[in-house]
Amino acid sequence: MDSKPTRGGRRRFLRQAGGLASAAALSSQPAEAATRPSRDAPIESLIARMTLEEKAGQLSLFFDDAREEAPDVTPAQRAKALDAVSAEIAQGRVGALFNGLGVASGRALQTIAVTRSRLKIPLLFAADVIHGMRTIFPVPLGEAAAFDADLAERTARAAALEATALGIHWTFAPVVDVARDQRWGRVVEGAGEDPYLGRVLAAARVRGFQGLDLRRPEAMLATLKHFAAYGAVQGGMDYASAEVSEATLADVHLPPFEAGVRTGVGAVMTAYNDIAGIPATGHRRLLTEVLKRQWGFAGLVVSDFASDVEMVSHGFAADDKDAARRAILAGCDMSMASGAYLKHLPALVREGAVPMAEVDAAVRRVLGVKKALGLFDDPFRSLDVQAERSRIRTPEAVALAREAARRSVVLLKNEGRLLPLRPEGTRISLIGPFGADRAHLMGPWALWADHANSVSIEQGLRAALPDPGLLEVAAGCGIEAPLAGGLEAAVAAARRADVVVLAVGEGDGMAGESASRVDIGLPAPQQALAEAVAATGKPMLVLLRHGRALALTGAVREARAIMACWFLGSETGHALADLIFGHHSPSGRLPVSFPLASGQQPFFYNHRRTGRPQTDVKETAFKARYREVPNEALYPFGHGLTYGEVRYSATRLSVATLRGSESLVVSATVSHIGGRPLREVAQLYLHQRAASPVRPVRELKGFKALELAPGQSAEVEFRLSRQDLWHAGPDGQPLLEPGLFEVVIAPDAVAGTPIGFEFRRG
Fold first, then answer.
1. 80-111 burial, b for 16+ CB within 10 Å, e for fewer?
2. pLDDT at position 37, please?
3. Which of 251, 642, 667, 759 has its CA 20 to 30 A from that of 36?
4. 259-302 pLDDT, tens per residue?
């Protein structure tokens, strides 16, 4: 066993003068661990002149209900809020505002900050821009199915262009929680169950939001959330506790955050959960020791909505004042929504409960972010009336939304090659609550979507059909309730059709925050609809709308063809028509495992092998399995079909032994047997046979997309080195253990026959 590497030897840390530099500069600046940003003379001068109350104001983020657009705010409430917040800004008691839009009101509020407040410190405007602003892209889990960092970067960039045109400097995205329990509602916001895919997409989305230079008016500060282990909440219940080992925390839940920090992210948000009894917002080891010292994070840490005072409900803090003390001492720089810092920090410092140095360090980070965004030089950046008119729903953004939606769809099943459908002369019945629906296209966290220009499945199919009259539409039922006469009408429509397209799944309120589910199957009325329609005997294509992996049963599971369609956003209908009629081949791959039953949760491909694994389906006694179903997926992580057959050769290695600092090449031949061009995602998986702790049965270590013409074969190669073999020890510290490994190039997480090699230290 190798000794543990030194911190400086294995990791390179990021630091920048005066807080943050451009994203490009950050990603190329190695430095030793830092507990705070390096000092900047103008910022230090400001800090020296600030009162305690002004410092607390800079550390306070409040809901922006004073601008033209804010969720669920009436005009009368807005007018009242404008007077109140204007007075607070003038007194220096507000550092940032969130979830309000509008350039005119943004300029008015910023004018108050830079002309009427004593120190003239500009405001920071933030918003939840998760997967688009006006133009909505697929939910992050859906987009993760594209297995494409470039696509994720481009959609984040497009979202930043629209958001900054509407007066936003800072987004609370990307979500980088690794989620292994599909009951959890917020699976939809992240990249799924795999830490490697999570790392790749975290870095890509940070690059997209922040651009090459944070000072540019179309650059938007990104936020990694929720730090940390929020995806490990017990029972898949939102806001619950997380019990994770140090090794699992280090190997699974922290890597996407570290990848985002290495890319130069400007902010990190704490999580609602506790980790082994310590609420994340009060977790000094994570916020200060790991994030700031080990990784050298130089941006700001912000609480989630009132998560600081929620430490009282946790039973960790005695009252709100104690919660503010614990949060600031842990390393949470900014309080969101609760007002706890503004109300209590001055007294805490005067009483000696919080050192002034801790407050100054937090203020330094907040001001450093504002400087990095160029707000001290141009307080009105991203508050341009012309941009507000010209950068919204551009043709380029709409085209990208269609591409992203198309690339996110996963073809789970295509029995008898039902797909693609022939648009000429085919009578299609589009049945289900989502056929004509436009209210549930976007999914959670699409607060400012342009619903008027969104495209339903019905609209997309009609636009693609030479004879739109061949399409008949019947809802059949509601999302969670039956419709009077709905089943009878749907069955009649199915009997008149050549093919049934069944659009079923989750409404947008069934996924996202506070939307945990005990049963991840279809609602009963939709399942009953599927059974009734299937009984007609007509071939059926199922289009699933969902924000998590689903447990499919009965007629839905047995349908001839099934597509995992997620919440695809503004261009849903056009994108699905592109695929259904064969103008493009499906190319998505599952970022989450589809279970055989809800009761398997939590279920994920990269689990550890037990001492009694079930290695044969006939071998059932005293093995790690359920009585009702095998311990396997219906559709595994990485699974996805296309229009054609793809074959993989045996995996090959350049050498049988990997020594020291050498590397080995892993390769295979991928052949396309079929008549349509396609995109195949080849995946590299690794397993260490004996280690401490026990290693997962497989771990994704790389993926590559191949564009293959009909009949074409291509060589795919991956290079493995010792850096790919590290894992966390029982204490969470990195280990590199020599021994036997297995590696395979495959189309999903369970396919293929691995080949072995040995790693030796010297």
1. ebbeebbebbeebbbbbbbbbbbbebbeebbe
2. 58
3. 251
4. 999 999 999 999 999 999 999 999 999 999 999 999 999 999 99
Below-70 pLDDT ranges, the chain: 1-38, 617
* DSSP assigned state of 251: I
The answer to whether position 335 is within a domain reads yes
Q: Is 304 a catalytic residue?
A: yes
What is the arrangement of strands in the sheet containing 540-545, beginning at the earlier edge strand?
Answer: 410-414, 561-564, 540-545, 499-505, 428-431, 471-474
Provide the CATH number for the domain around residue 427: 3.40.50.1700
Residue type, 414: N
Do 373 and 415 reside in the same domain of the chain?
no
- Its sign, for the CA torsion 130, 135, 141, 143, is negative
Instruction: Choose the catalytic residue: 304, 322, 450, 748.
Output: 304
**Total domains, the chain:** 3
Largest CA distance in the chain: 80
How confident is the model at residue 18, as a pLDDT?
30
Task: Tabulate helix, strand, coil % of the chain (nearest 5).
Answer: 35, 20, 45
Residue 294 tokens, joined = 């080990």
SS (H, E, C) 385-413: HHHHHHCCCCHHHHHHHHHHHHHHCEEEE
Q: Which domain holds residue 699?
A: 644-760
Task: Name the packing angle between helices 356-372 and 320-330 (round to 10°).
Answer: 70
Q: What is the predicted pLDDT for the residue at 223? A: 98
Angle value at C-alpha 610, between 608 and 615, nearest 5 degrees: 100
With residue 154 as reference, give the H or E element that holds it. helix 149-165
pLDDT computed for residue 38 by the predictor: 63
Phi first, then psi, for residue 228 (nearest 5°) are: -145, 165
- C-alpha triplet 633, 636, 641: angle, nearest 5°: 130
Q: Is residue 491 part of a domain?
A: yes
Question: Left (φ > 0), alpha (ψ -120 to 50) or beta: where does 44 sit?
Answer: alpha
Whole-angstrom Cα Rg for the chain: 26
Q: Is residue 633 part of a domain?
A: no
Nearest-10 crossing angle of helices 340-350, 320-330: 80
Distance CA 321, CA 746 (A): 54
Region at 704 (left for phi over 0; alpha for psi -120 to 50; beta for the rest): beta
147: Cβ–Cβ under 8 A, 6 or more apart, which residues? 197, 588, 589, 591, 681, 703, 705
Residues 118 and 78 reside in one and the same domain: yes
